[in-house]
Amino acid sequence: MIELQLANSLAQHFHRGQKYGEYDYFEYHLRGVVNLLSEVSLLPTEEDTIVIALLHDVLEDTSCTYETLDNIFGVTVADTVSILTKVDGEPIEQYLFGVCSNSTTRMVKFADSLFNYKECVKCGDLKRAEKYKRNLEVLHDKQAMISLEDILK
């Protein structure tokens, strides 16, 4: 529970002032991804997965460092968030392959891509929505998630 509170506070701190469209990044995007985890998973969402979901963009989109995550949460959380951090110039296929190597990162990235897909559809950006749909097809795990057809309804 303490780790979850720390992740919540750290994500709020580092994403402060960022926007997701017209919305607050933390309140809208990060909370949206966390909420989607329970909707797509066939298993109960563990606290560790929620911690990773709250932190999934903190290395990529803020000044937070790997060392900060390691010092606060330990190497496992820092390494897991690092897997979710796409490096500039990294081919998407290579990135998704790495994400799929870990069940937690796979589930979090799936929820992140689903959130982004739904937002793109809602605002009519169908070209970007297609990109996220391709991600969803690669990331979908039939053993741990409800069917992709049901998810995309």
Protein traits:
153 residues; mainly alpha; two-stranded antiparallel sheet; 10 helices; 2 strands
Explain this structure.
The chain has 153 residues and is an all-alpha fold. It is built from ten helices and two strands. Strands 1-2 form a two-stranded antiparallel sheet. Strand 1 (19-20) and strand 2 form a beta hairpin. The termini are far apart.
Helices, by number, come to: 10
Strand order of the largest sheet: 1-2
Report helical residue fraction. Answer: 55-70%
Main sheet overview: 2 strands, antiparallel
Task: Report the uncertain regions.
Answer: none
* Distance linking N and C termini: 34 Å
Strand percentage:
under 5%
Class computed from helices, strands and strand pairing: mainly alpha
Q: What is the ordering of alpha helices and beta strands?
A: HEEHHHHHHHHH
Topology of helices and strands:
Layout: H1 2-15, E1 19-20, E2 23-24, H2 25-40, H3 47-55, H4 58-61, H5 66-73, H6 75-83, H7 92-99, H8 103-123, H9 126-139, H10 148-151
Antiparallel strand pairs: 1-2
Helix pairs in contact: 1-3, 2-3, 2-8, 3-8, 5-6, 8-9
In a nutshell, what does this entry contain?
This protein is an all-alpha fold and 153 residues long. The protein has helices spanning 2-15, 25-40, 47-55, 58-61, 66-73, 75-83, 92-99, 103-123, 126-139, 148-151, and strands at 19-20, 23-24.
